[in-house]
Amino acid sequence: MTPVTAFCAIVPPYVLDRLAQQGHAAAVRSLAIDAVHREARLVPGPPAPGPASPQRVIHDAKHSERLPGRTVRTEGAEPVTDPSVNHAYDGLGATYALFAEVYGRPSIDGAGLGLNATVHYGRHYDNAFWDGRQMVFGDGDGIVFGDFTTCVDVIGHELSHGVTQFTAGLAYQGQSGALNESLSDVFGSLVKQYALHQSAADADWLIGSGLLAPGVQGVALRSMRAPGTAYDDERLGKDPQPAHMRDYVATGEDAGGVHINSGIPNHAFYLLATALGGQAWERAGQIWYDTLTSGRLPADADFATFARATVAAAASRYQDAAVANTVTASWASVGISPA
Predict the structure, then answer these.
(1) What is the C-alpha separation between 60 and 245, in angstroms, rounded?
(2) Whether residue 146 is found in the same domain as residue 180
(3) Strand partners of residue 38
(4) Catalytic residue positions?
(5) Separation CA 312–CA 272 (nearest Å)
């Protein structure tokens, strides 16, 4: 049976909830929009073979909530005057490049799926999401959030939900949901690092750097280097992400804390990538990609199950005990034993 696709958005619901409680009109409207999409039970069809190029199509919703909107740029067309369109086009291409050039995966489904996106969705919509078929970007309200097309790691994050959808299909609840979110943060960060030719040591390891509007006390939505430090703002509150299992947040909100507890596997990946050194998309990213696409990861995998699978993937690919031991040590540093 084809799994039902979860609604996956970059801004966690608890952030919008806090803003809405303060009477922030854009957050109230954004939550209502998100609720509609979250209830939509999208069942995507099986992947079909396609051409080995991005095949991007960008649409403009013109501030409506109708998808996909008017087509404004297609694959190979010259840039247009709207920067949001061009940012979306470039971000889709950067994500395609990472998966195709580094991991040999033609598009997010592995079979050349066309990459569609809609910009200018809604009025002051404070989010961006993958709905199982396409990317959708809000413009932000200009008070708390800016244009969601400007962050290539946000685009990489959302499209990586599609990779998970077409591979392990990790259930969007509890620890498997936090892994789903973490994998999108990992590959979203790698999209940015690959596009900028950054080493693991040079990368900022932030998700959504530049997304927060001027005056907001924060640097991004999440930090993989230091979970829990991305923002501390009167309106947004303090970043609640833990970096270690001792601080794991048991909650019934946010599908069991999928955006919160993802900080733990995020930090494990950061520790591994920086310990191995060089470019993170190479050994560390390859291990995570092998694990995700192995066909052996259960949809309800918890952190320990995923950790064991990464150690096995490292041992299988590299035949080097030092690499596998570094994977084990990285998980142990966040309180997870792969044994």
Answers:
(1) 42
(2) no
(3) none
(4) 158, 259
(5) 15
CA pair distance 168, 296, nearest whole angstrom: 8
**Cα separation, 240 vs 153, whole angstroms:** 20
In a domain, 150, yes or no: yes
Q: What is the pLDDT of residues 5-64, one digit of tens each?
A: 567 888 888 888 888 889 888 888 888 887 878 666 454 544 444 456 789 999 999 999
Is residue 66 in a domain? yes
State residue 51 phi and psi, 5-degree precision.
Answer: -70, 155
The answer to whether the CB of 195 falls within 8 A of the CB of 91 is no
CA–CA dist 221, 185 (Å, integer): 11
Query: Which amino acid appears at position 32 of this protein?
Result: A
Instruction: Number of helices (H) and strands (E) in the chain: give both, helices first.
Output: 11, 10
Tell me the HSE value of 329 on the side-chain side, using a 13 A CA sphere: 12
- Asked whether residue 26 is domain-assigned, the answer is yes
Indicate if 180 and 152 belong to the same structural domain.
no
CATH of the domain at 87: 3.10.170.10
Give CA separation, 73 vs 55, 68, 82, 90, 93, in Å: 11, 13, 10, 11, 13
Give the pLDDT confidence score for residue 28 in this predicted structure: 85
Residue with tokens 């009477």: 23
Statement to judge: residues 72 and 214 lie in one domain: no
DSSP-derived 3-state class of residue 193: helix
Report how far apart, in Å, the C-alpha atoms of 195 and of each of 100, 224, 233, 246 are: 13, 18, 30, 35
Give mean pLDDT, residues 1-7.
Answer: 52
Q: What is the mean pLDDT of the chain?
A: 93
pLDDT value at residue 38: 67
In three-state secondary structure terms, 224 is coil
- Tell the residue number behind the tokens 């927060």, with chain if given: 212
pLDDT at 4: 46
Q: Is the pTM for the entire model greater than 0.90?
A: yes
SS3 46: coil
Whole-angstrom Cα distance, residue 225 to residue 145? 22
Residue 269 phi, psi dihedral angles, 5° rounding: -65, -45
Residues 262, 119 share a domain: no
Total of domains in the chain: 2
**Structural domain of 125:** 8-166
